Structures are given as structure tokens and as C-alpha cells.
Amino acid sequence: MVQTSQYEYDWEPFPSPQGRYEAYQRDGVVVARSVFDASEITHIRQVFIKELEQNRQKMSHDDKVPSNDPLAKYPRFVHPHRHPETQAGQLARQNMVNKRILDIVQTLVGPAYGAQSMFYFKPPTARGQALHQDNMSLRAHPETCIAAWIAVDDADGENGGLMVVPGSHKHETICPTPADPTLSFSNSEVKLPPGMKRFQTKLKAGDVLFFHGSLVHGSNPNRSDSRFRRALIFHYVPQSSKEIAFFYLPLIRPDGTEEKIEEAELGGPCGNPWQEEA
């Protein structure tokens, strides 16, 4: 992992759904501007901050050990949509099937199921995440996943906004190597495919970045003094997918009900072959 790239991604306008689809096929990543308005973003931010504060109040005295790692004080939420008893869970579930998101997902990959929800706080000075490919974790097959990364704050190079490697989705899953723990909270990273460059994205709060499950992407540490880089993130898989890692089951249909497909057990990561179907 290196310092923020000198390259910034130059987004093109999309005059039609077909234009967005063609750009996604070519680059593996597209942006949709101002999908959420300011009031919606403020509400999302407030709900997850409140949930974090409530979780802290529930912690025992022994658990409240001071830490120099800002990510320990602002841990990410994983699968909040599975906790409808909380306001954050209800909000995550509601937005996982938000028509504005699903319409774009369907344009890019066809009808899809929701597979994962996450919320990242990424406070000032927090480490980033080394370059990686999402489908190494989800292991969707024979299709791949797609991410919808909702910016809850303005996100750029200074506060650790996402970096992407356009075109890298056309490569097979790349076996990871150890990451620098001083820069990344994850312990592995993938190397850039030959001849490709990482680009720094610049998003405004309310923008949504959609990217392919094999796209190489990651982020540098948040080097700002006062800016958070919060994001609400969803992963989807096409309804034609036949299996996925157990952690992501059950899937969520567009109507909010649950769907189960087979659990992935054989291969996928690091280019290992999938078992051929009989």
C-alpha cells in the first residue's frame, strides 16, 4: 500500500442506463451522484452514531479499556440489517432494498439479492484497508458480487476515500500477500495487475459508488485531523448465483423477504477452480 495516488478518477456522465452498463463492463466501477439527499444522509449518520453510543453504554467496565487505535473506539458494523430490533438495523434493511439502489444494480448485473450490509466510521488517523477483491470473501458463483458504497461524508484522498483499479475486474481473483499493519486494518493485500494503476475517487455525501466483486480496491489511512469518512455499504449478488459463502446467508429479496442458495464450499479464492457441475 502506498500514499494516495497522483491519479484521480475522471467520472464520465451517463446519458442512459446503457451508457452506465457499458462503463461498468469496461471499468468495473461507476458512480451515481446525489442518490441520497442531505436530509437522508444526516439521518443515516445520526442513526449509526446513536447506535454506537448505545453499544458503548452496554459495555462492562472491563470492556471499556482505552485504546490508541481509533478503529477500536469506532468499530464497523457488519450485517446491521440482521438486527431489526435496532433503529440502525431497520434503516440498513430498508436501504438494502431501496429502489434507487436496486434499479442501478439491476442495470449493471440484472435482478439481484442483498447479501451484506456494513457501516464504517473511519475516524481521523484511522488505518485504511489494503487493496483487495470483495468476491474473495463472498465467494459467489458462478456470478460475482457487486458493491454499492454510499458516501455518508465527503470522501477523498485526505480522509481515506476509496482507491480503485479500473479494469482489474477482468482478472481472476488474485492471491493476497501480507499487508502493512500500520496502514491497513486488514492483514492481506493483492498486488496491482500488470500495467494497471490505482485511482483516487472523490465522492460527495450522498453519492454511491458501484463496483464489481473482482475489482481491486482499497483505501489509505485517514490523514485528516477532524474529518470522518463514514460509509454505508451493501453487497449484492445476481439472482442467477448458485452459491455463496455461509456468512452471507440468508440473502434478501427486493421485497425484503429471505432467500437461501447453496453454501460455497469448493474453491473460488485465488483462482482455484470451482467444481464442475455434473
Q: What does this protein structure show overall?
A:
This protein starts with 16 loop residues before the first helix and ends in a 15-residue tail after the last strand. The model is unreliable at 1-5 and 273-278 (pLDDT under 50). It is an alpha+beta fold and 278 residues long. The relative contact order is 0.22. The protein contains six helices and 16 strands. It has a single domain, classed as Jelly Rolls, CATH 2.60.120. The chain is globular. It has helices spanning 17-27, 38-58, 70-73, 87-96, 99-109, 135-138; strands spanning 29-32, 77-78, 112-120, 129-132, 146-151, 162-164, 177-178, 188-189, 199-200, 208-212, 217-219, 231-238, 243-244, 251-252, 258-259, 262-263. 22% of the residues lie in helices and 21% in strands. β14 (251-252) and β15 (258-259) form a beta hairpin. The strands form five sheets. A six-stranded antiparallel beta sheet has the order 1-10-5-12-3-2. A four-stranded antiparallel beta sheet has the order 4-11-6-9, with no helix packed on it. A two-stranded antiparallel ribbon has the order 7-8. The longest helix has 21 residues, at 38-58.
